[in-house]
Design goal:
Blueprint lengths: L1 H12 L4 E2 L2 E2 L36 E12 L2 E4 L4 E6 L7 E4 L5 E7 L7 E6 L5 E5 L8 E9 L1 H9 L10 E7 L10 E6 L5 E5 L6 E2 L7 E7 L2 E9 L2 E10 L3 E7 L3
Parallel strand pairs: 3-10, 9-18, 11-18
Antiparallel strand pairs: 1-2, 3-4, 3-7, 5-6, 5-8, 8-9, 11-15, 12-16, 13-14, 13-15, 16-17
Length: about 260
């Protein structure tokens, strides 16, 4: 039962959350396109899948999503949370927005004609900040982006899913591999560099423990990553998955999506 709870916690943070009957994947909180609840509610958009990364972008792009909050075992919208779009290697946001009473946010960003190789950061002054890295640089509009701010108890639940004791001075990642249609990849494996002290686990969705690679969830847990710049890459069989440059941060939940190159 405990392992099953860990698996549910991981799914929640990746956008398929039901706590006290509040479904994080519900359509009314995820945009007008009617995304269904459950693990497939969020389908990452990858304009480069199987092609070179984009080099141009329209002058303005719009990013839409929802920020949830888990506190005291209850899930709800993170009304008032701030969401920043930040280029990797920079500290000043390209653009920011506040979540409304339903947790929904809309960011309108000026690109300067080039894709924004960056991440989204959700923070509210309470709970663990959430950093989310997309599959590829933002070169077009995106919607249904799930972000979640969690309290210490839920953070501990997430970290425990990796089967390791999380060092509070180290970073914690959730990684998910998806195919070019946004479906979770089975048999994917992740690597990080540098990797000293870090551990990578592949929790089973049935709560039976950890495997050698991703199962139908496409998910991996990465514990105890040394803070600082690093790369995370993936592979499924002989197929490489898009890698990322990431700044690892302690006391936060960092989510990374990867897909075939």
């Amino acid at each position: 039962m405990r392992r099953a709870a860990h698996a549910a916690a991981v799914a929640c943070a990746l956008g398929a959350c039901t706590v006290n009957n509040y479904n994080y994947g519900q359509a009314d909180a995820r945009g007008a396109d009617g995304a269904p609840p459950g693990p497939d509610a969020f389908v990452p958009e990858d304009p480069s899948c199987g092609h070179p990364l984009p080099t141009n972008a329209p002058a303005t792009i719009t990013l839409k999503g929802n920020v949830g909050a888990v506190a005291n075992g209850t899930f709800g919208p993170a009304a008032g949370a701030i969401v920043d779009l930040v280029r990797i290697g920079e500290t000043v946001p390209v653009a920011s927005a506040s979540a409304d009473t339903s947790g929904n946010f809309t960011i309108v960003a000026q690109t300067g004609g080039r894709p924004i190789d960056g991440y989204l950061r959700a923070h509210s002054g309470t709970g663990r900040d959430n950093y989310a890295y997309p599959i590829a640089p933002y070169a077009t509009d995106a919607s249904n982006i799930p972000l979640v701010i969690v309290d210490q108890a839920f953070y501990d639940e997430l970290a425990a899913a990796g089967g390791a004791t999380q060092d509070p001075a180290k970073a914690f990642f959730l990684a998910q591999a998806v195919d070019c249609d946004g479906k979770q990849l089975i048999g994917a494996m992740f690597t990080i560099d540098p990797s000293a002290g870090a551990s990578i686990a592949y929790p089973r969705t049935d709560g039976s423990g950890n495997g050698a690679a991703t199962d139908t969830s496409g998910e991996a847990i990465i514990n105890n990553v040394a803070p600082g710049p690093l790369r995370i890459d993936g592979v499924q069989g002989t197929t490489p998955l898009h890698g990322h440059r990431i700044d690892a941060r302690a006391n936060a939940v960092t989510i990374v999506w990867v897909s075939p190159s």
